[in-house]
Prior knowledge:
By secondary structure, the chain is α+β, with helices and mostly antiparallel strands. Helices cover 27% and strands 36% of the residues. An eight-stranded mixed sheet has the order 2-3-4-1-5-8-7-6. The protein has an eight-stranded mixed sheet with strand order 10-11-12-9-13-16-15-14, sandwiched between helices. Strand 3 (98-103) and strand 4 (106-113) form a beta hairpin. The chain is globular, with a radius of gyration of 18 Å. Mean pLDDT is 84; it is low at 9-47.
Amino acid sequence: xxxxxxxxxxxxxxxxxxxxxxxxxxxxxxxxxxxxxxxxxxxxxxxxxxxxxxxxxxxxxxxxxxxxxxxxxxxxxxxxxxxxxxxxxxxxxxxxxxxxxxxxxxxxxxxxxxxxxxxxxxxxxxxxxxxxxxxxxxxxxxxxxxxxxxxxxxxxxxxxxxxxxxxxxxxxxxxxxxxxxxxxxxxxxxxxxxxxxxxxxxxxxxxxxxxxxxxxxxxxxxxxxxxxxxxxxxxxxxxxxxxxxxxxxxxxxxxxxxxxxxxxxxxxxxxxxxxxxxxxxxxxxxxxxxxxxxxxxxxxxxxxx
Length: 305
């Protein structure tokens, strides 16, 4: 996985000028995470919290793993239509402001209503942590900030949001019943997560402390791809952001069977293409999209090259 994602980085650097034009758009669709905290902020402020399913039921905990993704959006109906038709996700309304998305019979994401006019939507990953209070204390000491204080979510555990020293927002969760087990990334499921930042060394230092990661790297030629491991598993990548104009942010990847057909279908469903598949970037196997409400994500074929 790490080697193939590194090849994306190498190609992206050769496409830096083009990607810089994309970057300001990604900044716009991702900035909400920093300004408003978390998709679940809407849920946490509601009078009745939804009864969400547990992240896992095995009692096995995997600190450092991205265990969930939440979408905050002003238009849940449009989001359901887009992701349902594009990826085959199915949905269950848990409350008037929160929807559960499932894939192949397993919960995969949440969609929360953001009642703020003229605002785009965004995806926010959530990391598993072993000790919520200790994590937030260590994050503060390391230069981070708590955006949303911990709250209890039935069946899920304790949830909070913090920003790293570069203002990239991330949700954290101390699961009450265990985390999702590691498995091969499924088509139309989550593949990978990266931090795009202006200061990779500082981000590495912060996440080594907060996430208890071990930094690893792959070097090919004169380019280095840094990633973080926990329990011997690659968990997230870190790359220098492609433009100084964009904000520091997390970026999520979704695995697809055919990137070109996915891109064309996304267009018909109201999505926008920030970067079309290009032969110079992993033989056309990766693209950058937004949904109709502006949430950005990356789609990528996997295992073909």
